[in-house]
């Protein structure tokens, strides 16, 4: 059945691609050059003559009208030749070059940008999202050319209620907000973290069909504790301002230059355009009430102007991730993607590993699962998985907890831990439960003793699942041990796919947060690589919530999203070790997840309706009708006729 549905979705995609149906008009309040400089409306050379006349564009463009299809082909040709010309260059150079060419299109013509993104999502997601977005954030100040989204800083206190009206769109459906304090596994990147909300919202548009004119990336700049950014290299190394021809001159200085600390910085800047001046506030992060008052003010401002908006909190350091979720989830329509989105994706994967062993789902509670990383993501996964295990067995959560083992930077977390973090405390082991292991036992000690079915990393530490750990997984009690190296970006993954199959054996299930190629195991066998990334859920959570008109995002809605993803794959795929759909079908899975979320909101009587569709109509929709309704409401990039209105 799924195959049929997917077939239908792909033929729908094909037929919509360059369809000749005339799309509805789009009202613009500007004319002439202002339109050409607005990426929401710009069609570059694609404006037909009638439109050029209507909008005062005659003479501002070369005379030949180029069709959307030709523009698309032209862009793809430039992209492919860039790929060819950068062959053999380093990962950083190639991926930043690819990001730049896409970003230039994004800045110029959003319709064309989103069309190439949707049609080539497998190739482009790793550039606009993880892993390249991590590199982009690290270099954001240097790459910055024009602003995207909004920046609210500690200096704006008291002004946000009016500032929010500076955003040009009348309606906003989806906001992704970060304070830059924990960007992927890269730590505190301050204002440079804005790349993450931009990348996440690109996925909202590509996967869930949010209208790009109604999404808003936001950076809340409350300072940074990143010493490198605070030191502002422009002041520290004034000579770096010199033009790049100084580089060879410095090289002539021989060994002194080789050992000089400025060499590394200069080479970074020279090769990657690293920023000379960080663009954020040059102050340590606000803490305590001062910090919360800034976030409070922002949330009040947003929901005053757009009462129906949804806010996704993204990449906040753990203490604020949990605190803000508790503070706002019953007051505003918001969720935390790292805690809640990740938990659902991981749970779907964990249930998939039970199916991959040919066991019934009720055996989930018999799986021993070691979670490495006790941060916002790891603790979210634990708490959601324990709730699911308790639901499956009908037992209470205390019994369900027994199968889970938590490791952080100080080793196995037990009740004997001094200064035990209150957030991790519910998952700390009793000494009687751990088979002679001690508080702080190392990862290898835990794996050797417990022989887990699943090893799941959300530590942000690259390579921590080393050869010794992976080899120890060969002794797992599972017939198909699972290794989830979920940390991002690629260099922070707990292990590579190739190492996992090489050391833990061919018969494992493997998933990573950032993409890896499938592994050739020889003899015609393939080691499948899954991408266990919250991108499979957050777009559907947002879309289902929006279309339901719910004012809050409940555990029930999130659970429905996770269950939908968990049941999406066929047994045949699961047996091969394929736990998640291909990213090529992300619009389809997102429609299913969105419908599941919407139906959960209806069941909880939270759905207030959206646009012309009221709560009663939503309630009477069948499951299939809901999926159809969600799919129909996905925005799709085509050039609409522009109509000028004063
Ligand atoms: N695949 C996905 O969809 C997602 C992946 N992530 C990734 O998960 C990672 C962690 O994110 P958060 O939990 O928010 O970060 P966090 O900073 O809140 O937590 C990191 C945790 O890892 C632990 N840790 C550090 N070094 C360790 C070591 N050597 N051994 C064991 N544990 C160690 C820390 O004690 C801490 O508990 C990041 O790399 C992030 O990119 C996060 C969300 C979604
Ligand atoms: C994927 C994601 O949200 C993260 O790595 O933080
Ligand atoms: Mg995140």
From TrEMBL:
<feature type="binding site">
    <location>
        <position position="315"/>
    </location>
    <ligand>
        <name>a divalent metal cation</name>
    </ligand>
</feature>
<feature type="binding site">
    <location>
        <position position="533"/>
    </location>
    <ligand>
        <name>(S)-malate</name>
    </ligand>
</feature>
<feature type="active site" description="Proton donor">
    <location>
        <position position="129"/>
    </location>
</feature>
<dbReference type="Pfam" id="PF03949">
    <property type="entry name" value="Malic_M"/>
</dbReference>
<feature type="binding site">
    <location>
        <position position="182"/>
    </location>
    <ligand>
        <name>(S)-malate</name>
    </ligand>
</feature>
<feature type="active site" description="Proton acceptor">
    <location>
        <position position="200"/>
    </location>
</feature>
<dbReference type="GO" id="GO:0005739">
    <property type="term" value="C:mitochondrion"/>
</dbReference>
<dbReference type="InterPro" id="IPR037062">
    <property type="entry name" value="Malic_N_dom_sf"/>
</dbReference>
<feature type="domain" description="Malic enzyme NAD-binding">
    <location>
        <begin position="339"/>
        <end position="602"/>
    </location>
</feature>
<dbReference type="InterPro" id="IPR001891">
    <property type="entry name" value="Malic_OxRdtase"/>
</dbReference>
<dbReference type="Pfam" id="PF00390">
    <property type="entry name" value="malic"/>
</dbReference>
<dbReference type="InterPro" id="IPR012302">
    <property type="entry name" value="Malic_NAD-bd"/>
</dbReference>
<dbReference type="GO" id="GO:0004471">
    <property type="term" value="F:malate dehydrogenase (decarboxylating) (NAD+) activity"/>
</dbReference>
<dbReference type="InterPro" id="IPR036291">
    <property type="entry name" value="NAD(P)-bd_dom_sf"/>
</dbReference>
<keyword id="KW-0560">Oxidoreductase</keyword>
<feature type="binding site">
    <location>
        <position position="314"/>
    </location>
    <ligand>
        <name>a divalent metal cation</name>
    </ligand>
</feature>
<protein>
    <recommendedName>
        <fullName>Malic enzyme</fullName>
    </recommendedName>
</protein>
<comment type="similarity">
    <text>Belongs to the malic enzymes family.</text>
</comment>
<dbReference type="GO" id="GO:0046872">
    <property type="term" value="F:metal ion binding"/>
</dbReference>
<feature type="binding site">
    <location>
        <position position="338"/>
    </location>
    <ligand>
        <name>a divalent metal cation</name>
    </ligand>
</feature>
<feature type="domain" description="Malic enzyme N-terminal">
    <location>
        <begin position="106"/>
        <end position="329"/>
    </location>
</feature>
<dbReference type="InterPro" id="IPR012301">
    <property type="entry name" value="Malic_N_dom"/>
</dbReference>
<feature type="binding site">
    <location>
        <position position="488"/>
    </location>
    <ligand>
        <name>(S)-malate</name>
    </ligand>
</feature>
<dbReference type="InterPro" id="IPR046346">
    <property type="entry name" value="Aminoacid_DH-like_N_sf"/>
</dbReference>
<dbReference type="InterPro" id="IPR015884">
    <property type="entry name" value="Malic_enzyme_CS"/>
</dbReference>
<dbReference type="GO" id="GO:0051287">
    <property type="term" value="F:NAD binding"/>
</dbReference>
<dbReference type="GO" id="GO:0006108">
    <property type="term" value="P:malate metabolic process"/>
</dbReference>
<keyword id="KW-0479">Metal-binding</keyword>
């Amino acid at each position: 059945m799924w195959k049929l549905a997917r077939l239908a979705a792909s033929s729908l995609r094909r037929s919509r691609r360059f369809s000749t149906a005339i799309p509805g008009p789009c009202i613009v309040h500007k004319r002439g050059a202002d339109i050409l400089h607005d990426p929401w409306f710009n069609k570059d050379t694609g404006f037909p003559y009638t439109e050029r006349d209507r909008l005062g564009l005659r003479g501002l463009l070369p005379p030949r009208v180029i069709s959307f299809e030709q523009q698309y082909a032209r862009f793809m040709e430039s992209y492919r030749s860039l790929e060819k010309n950068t062959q053999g260059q380093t990962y950083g150079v190639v991926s930043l070059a690819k990001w730049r060419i896409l970003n230039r299109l994004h800045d110029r013509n959003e319709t064309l940008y989103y069309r190439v993104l949707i049609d080539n999502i497998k190739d482009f997601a790793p550039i606009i999202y993880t892993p390249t977005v991590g590199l982009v954030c690290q270099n954001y100040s240097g790459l910055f050319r024009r602003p995207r989204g909004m920046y609210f800083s500690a200096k704006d206190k008291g002004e946000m209620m009016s500032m929010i009206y500076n955003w040009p769109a009348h309606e906003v459906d989806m906001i992704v907000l970060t304070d830059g304090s924990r960007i992927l596994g890269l730590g505190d990147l301050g204002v440079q973290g804005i790349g993450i909300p931009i990348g996440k919202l690109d996925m909202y548009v590509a996967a869930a069909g949010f209208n790009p004119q109604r999404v808003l990336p936001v950076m809340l700049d409350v300072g940074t504790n990143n010493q490198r950014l605070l030191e502002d290299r422009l002041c520290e190394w004034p000579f770096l301002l010199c033009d790049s021809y100084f580089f060879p001159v410095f090289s002539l200085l021989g060994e002194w230059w080789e050992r000089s600390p400025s060499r590394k910085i200069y080479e970074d800047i020279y090769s990657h355009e690293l920023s000379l001046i960080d663009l954020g506030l040059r102050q340590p992060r606000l803490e305590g009430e001062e910090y919360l008052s800034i976030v409070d003010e922002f949330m009040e401002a947003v929901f005053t102007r757009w009462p129906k908006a949804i806010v996704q909190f993204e990449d906040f350091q753990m203490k604020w991730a949990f605190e803000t979720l508790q503070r706002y989830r019953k007051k505003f329509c918001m969720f935390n993607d790292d805690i809640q989105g990740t938990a659902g994706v991981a749970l779907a994967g964990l249930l998939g590993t039970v199916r991959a062993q040919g066991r019934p789902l009720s055996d989930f509670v018999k799986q021993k699962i070691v979670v490495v990383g006790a941060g916002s993501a790891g603790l979210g996964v634990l708490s959601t998985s324990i709730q699911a295990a308790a639901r499956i067995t009908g037992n209470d959560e205390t019994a369900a907890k027994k199968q889970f083992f938590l490791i952080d930077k100080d080793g196995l977390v037990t009740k004997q831990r001094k200064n035990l973090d209150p957030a991790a405390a519910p998952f700390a082991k009793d000494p009687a439960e751990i088979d002679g292991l001690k508080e702080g036992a190392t990862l290898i000690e835990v794996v050797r003793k417990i022989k887990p079915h699943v090893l799941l990393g959300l530590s942000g530490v690259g390579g921590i699942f080393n050869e010794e750990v992976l080899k120890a997984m060969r002794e797992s009690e599972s017939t198909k041990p699972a290794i989830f190296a979920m940390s991002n970006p690629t260099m922070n993954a707990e292990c590579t796919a190739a190492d996992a199959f090489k050391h833990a054996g061919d018969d494992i299930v493997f998933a990573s947060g950032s993409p890896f190629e499938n592994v050739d195991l020889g003899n015609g066998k393939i080691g499948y690589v899954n991408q266990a990334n919250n991108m499979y859920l957050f777009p559907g959570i947002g879309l289902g919530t929006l279309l339901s008109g719910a004012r809050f995002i409940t555990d029930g809605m999130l659970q429905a999203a996770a269950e939908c993803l968990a049941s999406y794959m066929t047994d045949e795929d699961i047996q091969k070790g394929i736990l998640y759909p291909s990213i090529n079908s992300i619009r389809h899975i997102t429609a299913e997840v969105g419908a599941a979320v919407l139906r959960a909101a209806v069941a909880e009587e939270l759905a207030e309706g959206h646009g012309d569709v009221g709560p009663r109509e939503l309630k009477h929709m069948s499951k299939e009708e809901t999926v159809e309704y969600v799919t129909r409401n996905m925005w799709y990039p085509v050039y609409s006729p522009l109509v000028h209105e004063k």
